[in-house]
Automatic annotation (TrEMBL):
GO molecular function: copper ion binding; protein-lysine 6-oxidase activity
Domain of life: Eukaryota
GO aspect biological process, one term: collagen fibril organization
SUPFAM superfamilies recorded: SRCR-like
Protein name per the record: Lysyl oxidase homolog
Record PANTHER family: LYSYL OXIDASE HOMOLOG 2 (PTHR45817:SF1), LYSYL OXIDASE-LIKE-RELATED (PTHR45817)
Annotated signal sequence range: 1-24
Any coiled-coil regions, as ranges: none
The enzyme's E.C. designation: 1.4.3.13
GO cellular component terms, A-Z: basement membrane; chromosome; endoplasmic reticulum; extracellular space; membrane; nucleus
Function: Mediates the post-translational oxidative deamination of lysine residues on target proteins leading to the formation of deaminated lysine (allysine).
Protein family (similarity comment): Belongs to the lysyl oxidase family.
Length: 707
């Protein structure tokens, strides 16, 4: 009976030996991890491991979230958000080092997990696994040098004492945090491409030269504390941690880097962030005539990418869209490198043509239009519109303004830091003339997205009693300002007849907003002339509009939230002629202009009922005017006002024959907040001969708006 027992023990021992053989030595100094491939964020990518001096991939067979946690922690992130099979981030090259990886999630290294063994795999690179890590870093994470890609705890530009009050900080000693201590980098092997990466991280489009003399003097008086490595960047990396390590720097105390000194980085800010010349800045990044713009973003430096081609703005398809291409866009617009390359119309769907598809950039192009792309591909829809999020400089905007008393962080009474009796104090903003444009600037300055509502009475929000005084009045914004103090206002001469308190300005913000766009082709195709007798215009008389030139208008909601009327149903007005409620007093203006822009006829639409007339495929209608229904326009739907509806016209009874401009303006008083007001105006050329009216060349007239 003992022989079978002995045989089982031998089998168990054999199994144990095989199991241990499948666990490689995790302390191997030649082992390293990195995230590579066609990634759109810095914390995601194809998992690659360095073994025996050769980079290889990991197969997705039996991979799990627990294994992803081990990978992410090995790279200095707190944990993993998800993992991706089937080479989502592109196929790697070389060896497939690990297959059938089993982790409990507690391992300190991927090599401690069970697997088939190092280099034992029957997979193809079409099965390369990828991970998406949390953006949170492990505090005090210490990088063990592998000679290649690495992680550092933190990076900073340390300005000299005389420059520390400048905003933004664009120049200073570069320091990295390693083992809990800030250290300088020796500049012997430092290149302009390294500086380019640092500037991009800090929201600046490019590096610039600096005066080295004051820094040499300062460094000679400071205690040396150098990092033990040099850095080798290509210039395209999203951050310093993605650059390769250069040679080791021998640490010899104050004798370290004897042939050089600490690295100094100097960056050129984009025009929107450049201080005035009087503040000591003479060089800033100057944006040439823009061929690229961002639309639909909730914050500064983000949005849907649109390109100007043959006089018409169009979008970019997300096929092959990556961080390199996104960074070209960001730098072109005066921002830093890209934080994310977004796909799937994450910033809303655009209108018009898709100008570029399968974009491939080297990273050093001055404009996205210089990158290669597939000119033959025409199979993209606006559901695939590409977008970006860019690094922007730290301006401290949110330290000069706050919301007080709201039910949540997205709403409240607006309070600003203002001058009072020679000192800076928190105070209220006068609500006289306060509207959506002013609220938009407040929400943007605080990084809270779009304005949802602007309030001229805020008695229901309790504020800090020490901030009851009005310190800003007469505020008038265009909507393009980065901060409220950039808007027109009374300055030191505060005048607020109603006072603050219950009449202090307030806002509510939202991370998404609608975006109404008129379909110009429908207007052009449906405009015609008609004579109607007065007895047939009872509803027109009720709504104070008469006409002879009629047309249809089709208004799309291309934003990321539904377009809803500002007032609730209790404020809507019943119209007996139409047998439904009108929810907006002024929704659209129709005007006929002379060639010099003078208004010669108008068809002001007094009020509207908002509903989903039709929607894109797969989207359900949510709003209807009939049966006392809820009103609005759903994302991906449009509201069609046919030419035979009363007041869908312009009265040209007394108009002389000639050439004119036909103009339609949606949401003209900005009553409802949108993500983009620049596309709310449509213009057509019009010709009237006394008997017929022709409209042609209808197009969206783009207005100036910062993104």
């Amino acid at each position: 009976m003992s022989a079978p027992l002995r045989l089982l023990l031998l089998c168990a021992s054999s199994s144990l030996l095989i199991l241990q053989a499948a666990r490689a030595d995790s302390s191997d100094p030649g082992f390293a991890l990195r995230l590579s491939g066609e990634k759109r964020k810095q914390h995601e990518g194809r998992v690659e491991v360095l073994l025996n001096g050769e980079w290889g991939t990991v197969c997705d067979d039996d991979f799990s979230l627990a294994a992803a946690h081990v990978v992410c922690r090995g790279l200095g992130f707190t944990d993993a958000e998800s993992w991706a099979p089937r080479a989502k981030f592109g196929q790697g090259q070389g060896r497939i080092w690990l297959d059938n990886v089993h982790c409990s999630g507690l391992e300190k290294s991927l090599l401690e997990c069970e697997s088939n063994g190092v280099g034992v795999s029957d997979c193809k690179h079409s099965e390369d696994v990828g991970v998406v890590c949390s953006q949170r870093r492990i505090a005090g994470f210490q990088f063990i040098p592998s000679g290649l890609n690495h992680i550092v705890e933190d990076v900073r530009i340390r300005a000299t004492y005389s420059h520390r009050k400048r905003v933004p900080i664009t120049e200073g000693f570069l320091e990295v945090k390693d083992a809990g201590k800030w250290r300088q980098i020796c500049d012997v092997d430092w290149t302009a491409r390294n500086s380019r990466v640092i500037c991009g991280m800090y929201g600046f489009p490019t590096e610039k030269r600096h005066n080295p003399k004051p820094y040499k003097l300062l460094s000679s008086r400071r205690k040396k504390n150098f990092w033990g490595h040099s850095v080798n960047c290509t210039g395209n990396e999203a951050g310093l941690s993605e650059c390769k390590l250069g040679r080791e720097v021998p640490l010899k105390g104050n004798s370290t880097c004897s042939k050089g000194g600490p690295v100094v980085v100097s960056c050129a800010p984009g025009r929107a962030f450049a201080p005035s010349v009087s503040a000591g800045f003479r060089k800033a990044y100057r944006l040439e005539q823009p061929l690229v713009r961002l639309r639909g973003g909730a914050k500064i430096g983000e949005g849907r990418v649109e390109v100007l081609k043959n006089g018409e703005w169009g979008t970019v398809c997300d096929d092959h869209w990556d961080l390199t291409a996104a960074t070209v866009v960001c730098r072109e617009l005066g921002f830093g490198s890209a934080k994310e390359a977004l796909t799937g119309a994450r910033m809303g769907q655009g209108m018009g043509p898709v100008h570029m598809n399968e974009v491939q950039c080297s990273g050093f192009e001055k404009s996205l239009t210089e990158c290669r792309f597939n000119r033959e591909s025409t199979d993209c829809s606006h559901e695939e519109d590409a977008a970006v999020r860019c690094h922007i400089p730290e301006m401290g905007f949110n330290k000069r303004l706050r919301l007080s008393g709201g039910r949540n962080p997205l709403e409240g009474r607006v309070e600003v830091l203002g001058q009072r009796n020679g000192s800076l104090v928190w105070g209220e903003v006068c609500s006289e003339g306060w509207g959506t444009m002013e609220a938009m600037v407040v929400c943007r300055q605080l990084g809270l997205g779009f304005a949802s509502h602007a309030f001229q009475e805020t008695w229901y929000w309790q504020s800090d009693t020490s901030a009851n005084a009005v310190v800003m009045s007469g505020v008038k914004c265009s909507g393009a300002e980065l901060t409220l103090d950039q808007c027109l206002h009374h300055g030191k001469h505060v005048a607020c007849p109603r006072g603050g308190g219950r009449f202090a300005a307030g806002v509510s913000c939202a991370l998404t907003a609608p975006d109404l766009v008129l379909n110009a082709a429908v207007v052009e195709q449906t405009t015609y002339l008609e004579d109607r007798p007065l007895y047939a215009l009872q509803c027109a008389l009720e709504e104070n509009c008469l006409s002879s030139s009629v047309f249809s208008s089709q208004i799309h909601n291309n934003g990321q939230s539904d377009f809803r009327p500002l007032s609730g149903p209790q404020s809507w007005v019943w119209h007996e002629c139409h047998r439904h409620f009108h929810s907006m007093e002024v929704f659209t203006h129709y005007d006929l202009l002379s060639l010099n822009g003078t208004k010669v006829a108008e068809g002001h639409k007094a009020s509207f009922c908002l509903e989903d007339t039709q929607c894109d495929e797969g989207i359900q209608k949510r709003y209807e005017c009939a049966n006392f229904g809820q009103q609005g326009v759903t994302v991906g739907c449009w509201d069609l006002y046919r030419h035979d509806i009363d007041c869908q016209w312009i009265d040209i009874t007394d108009l002389r024959p000639g050439d004119y401009i036909f103009q339609v303006v949606i949401n003209p008083t900005f009553e409802v907040a949108e993500s983009d007001y620049s596309n709310n105006v449509m213009k057509c050329k019009a010709r009237y001969n006394g008997h017929r009216l022709w409209t042609y060349n209808c197009h969206i007239e783009l207005q100036c708006q910062l993104q």
